[in-house]
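Quick start: load a record and inspect it. Here is GTPase Obg:
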Amino acid sequence: MVTFVDRVTLHLRAGRGGNGCVSVRREKFKPLAGPDGGNGGHGGDVVLVADPQVTTLLSYHHSPHRTAGNGGFGMGDNRSGAAGESLELPVPVGTVVKDADGQTLIDLVDPGTRFVVAPGGIGGLGNAALANPKRKAPGFALLGTPGWEGDVLLELKTVADVALVGYPSAGKSSLIAAISAARPKIADYPFTTLHPNLGVVQAGDVRFTVADVPGLIEGASEGKGLGLEFLRHVERCTALVHVLDCATLEPGRDPLSDLDVILGELAAYPVPEGQIPLLERPQVVALNKVDVPEARDLAELVRPELEARGFRVFEISTVSHEGLRPLSFALGELVAQHRAAEALKPAPERIVIRPKGSEREFSVRVEGGTYGDIYRILGEKPVRWVQQTDFQNEEAVGYLADRLQKLGVEDELFRAGATPGATVVIGLGDGVVFDWDPSLTSVAELATAPRGTDPRLDASTRRTTSERRERYHELMDAKAEARAELEAERRAASGWSEEDEEE
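Running the structure step on this input writes:
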C-alpha cells in the first residue's frame, strides 16, 4: 500500500563556494611573472521543479535531508574550480513552499515551474582576479561563502477542476472510478479513502480533472476525522459536487441533513486571501445509489427542496451508471465557462526587478553589553565580505578593512558614537568580533610590503629621530653611573681614600 504524504519539512543545505587560489606564474627567466590564481567554483543550488508525474511527497518524508554539491577550489595557471552540482527536487504540481516562519515563498501551480529554494555559495576570487595597477601581486585570495541552509515546508494542494465532497461511504470513490480511469480503493466501511484521488474525465470537447476528497464529518473544519487534513485540497477546484447517500442505513441521517453539515464545514474553512470562498463557487448535487428502490424514492422526495435552494440536482448510480453522462457534461460546461472567464482576464502585471543601489546596504545597531556598548553591523555585503576573508592572512584582513571603509562603515560607526577600541560585531549572533581601530585608512594599495602582509596591522612601529636620541642619552647616562659605582667599590675594597691620593 502506497502512503500518501501531502505535507513535509525539508532540511536543505546548498553547496559551499570553493576558495580562490593564491599562485604566482613562474616561467623560464621570469621567476615572478605575475599572479595566476584561479577563482573558486560556485556552490550548487537546491531547485524545486513542479513535475506532473509526481503525485506525492512520500520520498521527502523518508529522506528530508538534501544537500547540493560544493564548488571546487581554484588552481594555478588561471584554472577556475568546478561549479557544484545543483540538486533538482521534483514535487507535485500544486505544491506550496513556505519558510520556517510559515510565510509563503511560491505556489508551484504550473507544470515545469522551477524555484531556487536554497541558493549556493559564491566562489572566492583568486589573486589573479584581485590584481590591479596598485596591487599588482596580491598575496591573498577570497574564500568561498557557505550556501543557504535551513528548513522549508512543502504543502501539497491538489490541482483539480472539480472536487467530490460528502460524508464517508457516500460513493465518491465509486463515482470517480465510474466516470474516469482512476481506480481508487473501494470498500463498504467509512474512511476507505485516506488521500485524494485524481481522475481525468472527457465530456465532449472538454477534458477536466476530478478530485475525490476523503469523507467529511461534522467538525471537520475543527480537526475531527480526516477533513481538516484534506479540506485544503478543495481550495483550487472550480466546482463542487455534493455526493449524497440516499441509501444510508445510519439513524438520524438523510440527504438534506448531510448536505447542511457539509455546507457548514465548507463555510467554516478559511481559504487563502484572494481566493473565492468555497460556498461561492458553482455547486451541484448528486443523489447517489438510486439503483436501490428505497433510495430512488428518497431522491425523488428531496429533489424539489434541493432545487428550491438553487442547486442543480442529478440522480445517479455508480453501479448501473445511470445519470453519469448528464452529470459529466454539466460539470464540463461549468469548467469550460470558468476557463473562458479566466482567459478574458488581463494578463498579470509584469514584475520588474531593479538593482538596489539606492537603498542602504548596511546598518549599525548599538547593543548594550556587560563591558560597554557593542556596535553590530548588519547587511548582506559586510557579512559576505567577512565570510570571504582569510583572517590568517594580514593582507586579506587589510583588504577587508578597505572594503568596509569604502562602503562607509567607519563613517556610520562615528555617527553611532563608536570610539577607538570599541567592540564591533559583523553579522547576527556571535558573528565576527573586532576591536575597532579607525586609523586603518584605505591606503593598502600604496603600501609596499611583502606579499601576504599589511604594514598597518604590524604592532611594531619605527622610532623617530628624537626618540632614538633620547634613548641614546639614557643609555650613556646609565653607563656613566655604572662606571662610577664600580670605581667606588674598587676603592673601598683596596682601602684607598682621598687623603692617600693627596699625599
